[in-house]
User: Fold this.
Amino acid sequence: MPSSARISRRNRMPRLLGTKLSFTRWNADWKSATSLYEQAAIAYRFRKDNEKAKDAFEKASKGQEMISSYPSPSDNMSISFNIPWDAAKHMESAGALAKELGLWNEVSDFHRRASEFYRECGRPQPASDALAKGASFLEDKAPEEAIKMYDEACSVLEEDGKEQMAFDLYRAAASLYVKLEKYSDAAATFLRLGSAADKCNAINSQCKGYLSAIIIYLYAHDFQQAQKCYNDCSEVQAFLNSDQNRCAMKLLSAYEEGDAEEIKRVAQSSAINHLDHVVIRLARKLPTGDLQAIKKDLAGDDGEDSLDENDLT
Amino acid sequence: MSVIDILTRVDSICKKYDRYDADKLNGANVAGDDPFARLYASVDADINECVEKAEAAKQEKNRATVVALNAEIRRTKAKLLEEDLPKLQRLALKKVKGLTKEELATRSDLVAALPDRIQSIPDGSSTATKKNGTWGASGSRTGGAIKFDTSDGNFDDEYFKGTDESNQFRQEYEMRKMKQDEGLDIIGEGLETLKNMASDMNEELDRQVPLMDEMDEKVDRANTDLKNTNVRLRETVLQLRSSRNFCIDIILLCVILGIAAYLYNVLKK
Assistant:
């Protein structure tokens, strides 16, 4: 097959030309090696030979890194401006291929390195995109790792002040947490979404985030936390005037009264239907746990509260 | 001098010397000093006004003006009955100096006669009692929120009989209200969904705006680069294609063709 012959020749050529130092060659000629590696990688990918393609992409990326670190005077302008840009791109392609192969630790590794390269280029958006892509690849197989990557992606964007792009990432991270049944973390992520939305003046997303956090706390039987969360959120003027606030108030009062029917009715309301579908599923399952127990807790708390009110110290 | 002249002159002289008319002044003062007389005079004036308005209303063709006049009459009547009459009664009992016992008695009689006079002023509500009978038959009570604006506040018990028609009507009214409520609920839900979608779109657009600005800048830069490159390219091409070089090209081409033809001829032989 002519293509395979070409490919094998291409694969040999970089090694012959580029990287190995020999008697006649004193400097590794990375430039030509890199271009040859790139061509080889593309040809391998076309032939669906994922293993070799992945290796080739890795080496191409390394070559690009080398080129960018030691720019020679004959380089043209484009390379010195986007220093490891191509390196990052190749890393990402390598990561995608690693996902096809099912090498999960390599997936996370490659995507992390790609994101670092993007950050060196001074482009945080592609950096977080790379991390997010890696995380989405890993969602099923290694959710812990995926969550960490989502977290890093969100912090990259937050540092740069571009939180608006981060909303989707927060939502994905929170749904992963819910899948892992880590409800307090999920609620905390929604609260982070709320604060990010506050900075960008995205009031609708902010209120939806707060309402989702309250619902998650209620689902986790943690009524105190839900109350605290509600009180904190009520400090925010925008939340106070919103539909979501009314819905939350209704829900919490229904819980206080221990009225299961009312809770179910509020959960069917339209304000909740506009939230993330993971949260909608949780809301439909409310009320969980023993409403009477919650009422007893509330009664006990109220007694303490009245003491606190009288206690002016 | 004619009679008319004399009359006019007398009138003007009288007017001039009115200030010195002690009787008239005293008369006015008397009325001014006595609050009862003052109040009685004003009540009297009001009643006369009302009677005039009632006459006007009877002859008026325009229903709206009739209604307005009747309303005014009723208002004045109510005010007279509630405020002025008790005051008059109190004042009538007070003893004022310069008044004899008979005058006091007459005052109380006058005050007693006032309510009847006030009530007798027609204000369009005397026909209301007749109408109420017919209303009871058809039973069109609209939710009980409307109060009837008549001074006759005492309706009989047989005023509102619940006939079949009225019950049916009420039922239909309730059904229609329920259906309207349902429809409005559905509309409300639809509107909420629209609002949610609209605010999501708003946020998305806010997100896209800085990206578009960046893209705009980059495209502008690329555009200027292209223009520069084009200009340079045009200059180069023009240089290459200048007429002198072109002629030389043609001449050389002809020379080569000539040589080739010569060789061809030589070889053919």
